[in-house]
């Protein structure tokens, strides 16, 4: 069950898949989708800045209403979707650069990427007597996020 809408995630995945299937970034559907994605880029600082104070905002979040909590998955899939637009529209380079720089800045010391935070993997959290406390309070690097980030 989703607790929020997945407008950014779904739009980016569909736009990217259509482009991979041969639909041009100049097609009105792709242009409209990617323009929507560009308007959803984060320009506000969120909690992620606590552990990553030297980076500017630039990621994307899961939903249309999320403007402060970007994540690696949504950022990389959005960057995939706008890649051809950046090549053909130099004015999109600023958004691209901010997104790429944010993704690079979020890499953990162990070489991997997590979902929302950088360097938040304290094993003591697993000892808190709350069901799934480690999942709720820690954001360790994961193979799936790292793999998708490297694939991008």
Give the helix/strand layout.
Elements: H1 7-20, H2 28-39, H3 72-88, H4 93-105, H5 133-137, H6 143-151
Helix pairs in contact: 1-2, 1-3, 2-3, 3-4
Distance between the termini: 27 Å
Label the overall shape.
globular
- Please tell me the CATH architecture by its name: Alpha/alpha barrel
- Number of DSSP E strands: 0
- Main pleated-sheet profile: none
Q: Helix content range of the residues, please?
A: 40-55%
Calculate the mean pLDDT score and round it.
88
CATH topology tier name: Glycosyltransferase
Please summarize what this structure is.
The chain is mainly alpha-helical and 152 residues long. The chain is 46% helix and 0% strand.
């Amino acid at each position: 069950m989703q607790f929020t809408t997945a407008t950014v995630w779904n739009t980016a995945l569909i736009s990217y898949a259509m482009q991979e299937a041969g639909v041009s970034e100049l097609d009105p559907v792709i242009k409209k989708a990617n323009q929507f994605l560009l308007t959803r880029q984060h320009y506000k600082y969120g909690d992620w800045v606590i552990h990553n104070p030297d980076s500017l905002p630039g990621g994307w979040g899961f939903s249309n209403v999320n403007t402060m909590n970007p994540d690696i998955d949504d950022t990389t899939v959005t960057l995939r979707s706008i890649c051809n637009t950046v090549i053909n529209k130099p004015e999109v380079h600023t958004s691209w650069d901010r997104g790429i720089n944010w993704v690079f800045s979020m890499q953990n010391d162990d070489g991997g990427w997590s979902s929302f935070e950088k360097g938040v993997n304290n094993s003591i959290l697993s000892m808190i007597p709350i069901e799934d406390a480690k999942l709720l309070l820690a954001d360790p690097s994961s193979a799936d996020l790292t793999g998708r980030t490297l694939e991008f």
